[in-house]
Amino acid sequence: MKEDLKSRFQSMRLPSADESVRRTGEFVLQSAEKYEPAIARVFGWRRKLGTTVASVLAAWILFHVLFGANGTVAYGKKRAEYKSLEQDVNELQKENEQLQKHVEALKSDPAAIEREAREQLHYTKPGEVVYVAPALPAQMPKNDSAKK
């Protein structure tokens, strides 16, 4: 019996590794040819989906850059507000300088003191006559009740 098995194994030829690899490769190629249209569709859909997602993401980023909380539009508004406030500060500084000069003049210049006393407090020198024009009457608000 041992001899019978021995002779069987000797007469049987085992496939070589190269032949096994070749057969596997042929099977893979046949399978790929069979499913190639489906794979092409899947890759096509995936490519379209990826392009769509990238486009939507780019549009969202662009919208956010332009109109977001810190976007270009908000930046332009803040810059205009900054320039306006800077101009107001410059005007107030000039006014402050003028008032400082006026205060210094009132502290040291007798003519400035006299002018303020005459204008603000209506002071006069002895023998002067001051004429004061009557104040204009304040306009009354329009009232439609008279028409009724």
Describe it.
With 148 residues, the protein is mainly α. It contains 4 helices and no strands. Helix content is 74%, strand content 0%. Among the domains are: 21-67; 69-123. It is rod-shaped.
How is this fold's topology laid out?
Elements: H1 2-11, H2 17-67, H3 72-108, H4 110-121
Helix pairs in contact: 3-4
Offer a concise description of the structure:
Helix content is 74%, strand content 0%. With 148 residues, the chain is mostly helical. The mean pLDDT is 82.
Please tally the helical runs, counting DSSP H or I stretches of 4 or more residues: 4
Mean residue pLDDT? 82
Distance between the termini: 135 Å
Structural class per helix/strand content? mainly alpha
Shape: rod-shaped
**Total count of strands:** 0
Radius of gyration: 50 Å
Which sheet architecture does the biggest sheet show?
A: none
Helix content: over 70%
Q: Extract low-pLDDT stretches.
A: none
- Strand and helix order: HHHH
Report strand %.
under 5%
List its salient traits.
single chain, about 150 residues, mainly alpha, rod-shaped
